[in-house]
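Support request, please re-run this one:
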Amino acid sequence: MDRLTLARVAAWGLVLAGLVAGSFRQVASPQALRHGDDLVLAADFHVHGFPGDGSLLPWDLSREAARRGLDAIALTNHNNQLSWRLVRAFPSLADGALLIQGEELTSVGYHMASVGADGTVDWRQPAAAAVRAIRQRGGVAIAAHPVGQEAKGFDAAALAELDGYEAAHPLMFALEKDRRELRAFELRALAAKPGIAAIGSTDFHSFAPLGFCRTFVFARERTATAIVEAIRRGRSVACDAEGEVYGPADLTPVVVAACRAAAGSPARDASSVSGFSAPLLWAGLLALVLLGVRG
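Re-run finished. Output below.
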């Protein structure tokens, strides 16, 4: 076996090592609150993963989400579902927080999180049409960080169709202008659809901790179907990183203490991410690009 072939074998070894590296550490799922017949589940519905536009593999995200007290996250890469395909290929590796199929439609004039839809949706269409397409695939449509240019596409027709909007997002802690624009969008959304779901999301790519902003969703069970249905019914409360809550007056008191506790938890520690998987996989794939997959 020549040196080039040995190098390719080593590269494939790195890819395989990356795929299984995250499987050696299990994290128990957090204990959910109860409210009547509902479970109160903590979730982050705007998470980017590898492969795509995030740095962590889906099962690393699943475990880190559980460590951060989350019951579920949606994988929402920009205009693709590559991370979800990896979940489908290796379903047993995601043994932490529940992973939900999703996508972030990144279009001119709007960004929209598709959560629970059974496939991708064309981003080259008006926001109202995109919402209807997401619903036809069984999902819910959430206005993602609707500030500045990314809020202009949400016209009256889109607002009347939306299932949810991001009331809490890390942008609100970056610029006061963005905080004001999130609140202004909230008023527009509630006026157009009083029962619209309030959502808190991290928009995680690499650095901000999962659940920095989060959603408490009141679902009948810990399944993607039940969580999507709860959002559709407006049964959610958004929680920001300062412990403030946004949502229906009858639900917000239920999660005030949990939101404040999450806001006060450490953002990271030495065990925060079982992050060997993605670097190994990246290294192996890069080596295969340079060497060629086969001779």
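DSSP finds nine helices and eleven strands in the chain. The longest strand covers residues 38-47.
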